[in-house]
Design goal:
mainly alpha
Amino acid sequence: MICEKCGYEYEGKRCPVCRKNAVNAGVLAIVKAFFYSVAFVAIQFIVQFAFVIVKVTAALLSGMSDGDAYDIVLSSLYDNVCKMTILSSLVTILAVGIWFLARRRSTVNEVRLNPIHPKHLGLAALFGAVLQVVTSVAVEFVPWPQSWIDTLTEMNDYIISESIGLQVLAVVILGPITEELVFRGLVHTRLRQAFPPFVAAILSGVAFGIVHGTMIQFFYASLLGVVLGLVFNRYDSLFPCILIHIFFNGVSLLPYFELDAAGLILLYLACVAVTILCAYLIWFKKKDIQNGKESPDETV
């Protein structure tokens, strides 16, 4: 039998040359995805380290004792989460731009910054907002270990201790843009070159969950990452993923949990219904093409 792809003559059910090429492509895709994920984490650590060094140096130069300087290290890490997120996000975006510029490649093409129809950007924003409510309320009913809950609560307390402006800039704007740039624009696209799109969405989603640190965040961030990967597959564009992520994080800053039980139940049911509607419109109603133009109605 002669393989239609490579022309190799073989016996059996599958061409050994194509099988070997597929394995090599899979390994290369995983290596690239791992590289970008590690680079993202490394930038976070480098920024944190530099931030702490600056704080400690300033403290020591002012005549502070070593013990007090140690306290400065801890406060630098815990009391400046938003500031470090903003700084590391800017450094990451700059690093990605320089990386592709040095390789003479278009960042826009590499991370799939393809335009889509504006009304579907609005759909993505709505989907992110209602998905946040559905996910957060559902998470509250999971019997997590108390230690996991305490860790997540402590981390959230550090974030909300900073000004609302810093929270919005770090958590709602720059954080989502940077994470989508890395995990959908770089990690997912590389995995999709060798794996089926759905598998790429799962793998990039898990990688996205891992970098979020706490166990509870790992589970719901992984789920969000898979959903974002599927949205990315649908539109082949980073823009709807960024908007979903921005509104997902933005709604998390709203105090809707302060509603009474009846109000929260009604809100949750409404968000579940809108989430299902948005999912239908995204995956089963229409598919957009590039340059912001709509294609004819097309079912999946």
